[in-house]
């Protein structure tokens, strides 16, 4: 049976509040917390994904202002998360299809045991001070995100490890002795969570002066005026907006629903692009049987749109 999500609950103004959050804390009762958190989100019409683990909470959710406020208040009512911080942005339409509260071994998967940002971590740098740090010739700037994210935006002069997953990052560090050539290491990611573990790992590898952008790229784009910015391109986000730009305005990227790569307007103008079926990144990697299966799915999505509904597979 085809799953259909009715969009009649979308706010008339088309404006949804998006909250990105994470907090590292010893949370042994994380499994018991899942059901009540899921129920509260559902009751308030909040959608997105929240990850729970023994090391804390991480995720992004969207909904009405009141709905998001209720969920954040409930999370902060837990003693472990009383100091939780979050970042806000806006979406013109609901950027998630459903609400998922998942149990995980790690809230951000690095695959290195005993990395604890509550025990050791880099020095936080406020967005207003970031430009000076990364412009210092004594600083190596490292983007800790994955290759499909860095492909659409990066800080000027930053090193791109071109990793496929965050699990590859530790080996990339171990295999790059040149990282010791300058005294300062400045690291950044989308919202700050990957850098919590990345800087902790760097410190344990013997790097002394390790810094990371507080609040990540999202906080920088929110607070630093575009005319002063050293950010180039757009920032990939893990929801249906796909990307945001300065001022956290929605970008013009779309997602290829065959390979999940972010697509520019130029990509979508390519003869290799077929909505929901293929794009320049994956056209030659998919069999004709795969493409036909994707076409059938796309037809179902088109039919759902005509009925004013949203196909859950879209």
From TrEMBL:
EC number assigned by the record: 1.14.-.-
Reaction(s) the record says it catalyses: uridine(34) in tRNA + AH2 + O2 = 5-hydroxyuridine(34) in tRNA + A + H2O
Protein name (record): tRNA uridine(34) hydroxylase
Keywords from the named record: Oxidoreductase, tRNA processing
Classification via Pfam families: Rhodanese (PF00581), UPF0176_N (PF17773)
Family stated for the protein in its record: Belongs to the TrhO family.
Stretches assigned to the Rhodanese domain: 135-229
Function, as annotated: Catalyzes oxygen-dependent 5-hydroxyuridine (ho5U) modification at position 34 in tRNAs.
Protein species of origin: Rhizobium helianthi
NCBIfam families in UniProt: PRK00142.1-4
PANTHER family: RHODANESE-LIKE DOMAIN-CONTAINING PROTEIN 7-RELATED (PTHR43268:SF3), THIOSULFATE SULFURTRANSFERASE/RHODANESE-LIKE DOMAIN-CONTAINING PROTEIN 2 (PTHR43268)
């Amino acid at each position: 049976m085809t799953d259909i999500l009715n969009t009649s609950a979308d706010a008339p103004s088309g404006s949804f509040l998006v909250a990105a959050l994470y907090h590292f804390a010893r949370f042994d009762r994380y499994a018991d917390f899942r059901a009540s958190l899921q129920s509260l989100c559902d009751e308030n019409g909040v959608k997105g994904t929240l990850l729970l683990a023994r090391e804390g909470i991480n995720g992004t959710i969207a909904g009405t202002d009141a709905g998001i406020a209720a969920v954040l208040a409930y999370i902060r009512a837990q003693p472990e998360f009383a100091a939780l911080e979050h970042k806000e942005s806006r979406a013109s339409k609901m950027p998630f299809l459903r609400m998922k509260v998942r149990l995980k071994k790690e809230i951000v998967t690095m695959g290195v045991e005993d990395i604890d940002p509550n025990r050791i971590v880099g020095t936080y740098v406020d967005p207003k001070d970031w430009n000076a740090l990364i412009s210092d010739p004594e600083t190596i700037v490292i983007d800790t995100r994955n290759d499909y994210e860095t492909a659409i935006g990066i800080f000027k002069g930053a090193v791109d490890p071109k990793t496929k997953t965050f699990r590859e990052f530790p080996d990339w560090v171990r295999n790059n002795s040149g990282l010791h050539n300058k005294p300062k290491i400045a690291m950044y990611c989308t919202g700050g969570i990957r850098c919590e573990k990345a800087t902790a790992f760097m410190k344990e590898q013997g790097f002394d002066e390790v810094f990371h952008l507080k609040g990540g790229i999202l906080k920088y784009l929110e607070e630093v005026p575009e005319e002063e910015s050293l950010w180039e391109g757009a920032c990939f986000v893990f929801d249906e907006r796909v990307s945001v730009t300065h001022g956290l305005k929605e970008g013009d990227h779309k997602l290829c629903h065959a390979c999940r790569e972010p697509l520019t307007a130029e990509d979508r103008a390519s003869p290799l692009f077929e909505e929901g079926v293929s794009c320049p990144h994956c056209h030659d990697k998919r069999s004709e049987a795969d493409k036909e299966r994707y076409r059938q799915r796309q037809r179902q999505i088109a039919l759902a749109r005509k009925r004013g509904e949203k196909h859950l597979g879209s």
